[in-house]
Design a protein that fits this description.
- The protein is 23% helix and 20% strand.
- It is an alpha+beta fold.
- Strands 1, 4, 5, 8, 9, 10, 12 and 13 form an eight-stranded mixed beta sheet that branches.
- Bound molecules: the ligand Nc1nc2c(c(=O)[nH]1)N[C@H]1C(S)=C(S)[C@@H](COP(=O)(O)O)O[C@H]1N2 and molybdenum atom.
- The ligand Nc1nc2c(c(=O)[nH]1)N[C@H]1C(S)=C(S)[C@@H](COP(=O)(O)O)O[C@H]1N2 binds next to loops.
Amino acid sequence: MSHIIIPKAWKIPEKEVTDESVYRNRRHFLKLMGFTALGIAGALSPAPALAEKIIAPLAESLDPPIKLLQNKYRPIPDLKRNDDYPYMRQLTDENVAGKFNNFYEFSAEKEPVWKMTNGFKDRPWSVEVGGLVDKPGTFAIDELLSTMSLEERVTRLRCVEAWAMIVPWSGFPLSDLIDKVQPKSSARYVKFTTFEDAEIAPGQKRYPKNPWPYTEAITMQEALNELSFMATGIYGHSLPAQHGGPIRLVLPWKYGFKSIKSIVRIDFIEQKPATFWNTLLPNEYEYEANVNPDIPHPRWSQRREKMIGTGEIYATVKYNGYGDFVASLYS
Ligand SMILES: Nc1nc2c(c(=O)[nH]1)N[C@H]1C(S)=C(S)[C@@H](COP(=O)(O)O)O[C@H]1N2
Ligand SMILES: [Mo]
């Protein structure tokens, strides 16, 4: 889209991703140039947060480590961890993950989201499931939760912006919900839709031309893969709004933007539907969006990723390391 003008200083050579001092200097340079963090976001919005955010040492924005509002979160009893998905990295601190969120309905900046979503009402909430299914239905969230067998699984989430986290989600496989509604054989795509209410979500008011509501879609085969997960909790309790409560998708082998938050509708359809980011910025948000170090983002390399919180740098792995589960979908 041509309304997005990218300043030259914005290009991040790959080595800068690994070099904090370069970041500091570059930030100083940007300041001299008159680009404050907010100014850049404003100029580029609704493009996602930017090199500054990709390489920022998070400690700056995250201290003091205030405990999240635990009393607001309902613990999930008898949660069993599913260990089928090995992870080789240190878990991301809950306070780090919970204070650094992409949620454009609220803000184009990550740091304010957890506060902005504080008053978000996740009850009553229901998910309408329809389209090419034999048993369409509107599922009230608590009823849905009571009929699903919940499990915990630790998976990595890799944002297209080159940061990553690893968190214990809880919820149920998407295939369990698919079993309930019995899709017809003509269903080829599953489309997910986030709530739309500009009174609740200031981002929807601020960027009225964006193709709200946020939508995402995957193929039926992808949806039936055991890795496709409906998360209703994190760190052993209900899912706070900044993470997409009360219910979101988690697709660990795809870039994070596919893992749509705060879902109100799921449709089984025949034709490939348009999706939010792919409509807005198709060059930057590929439709399939499988994590792949060999396909650079137009503005940065995807060869490395930075863990939020610790700042550790790792080589990006194809399918985010989940090739054993999903590679066969694409052969
Ligand atoms: N509805 C909605 N879902 C969304 C987003 C969003 O802006 N709106 N951002 C996506 C992006 S870009 C990422 S990286 C993840 C971030 O999830 P987290 O905040 O739980 O880490 O949510 C995804 N889901
Ligand atoms: Mo993302």
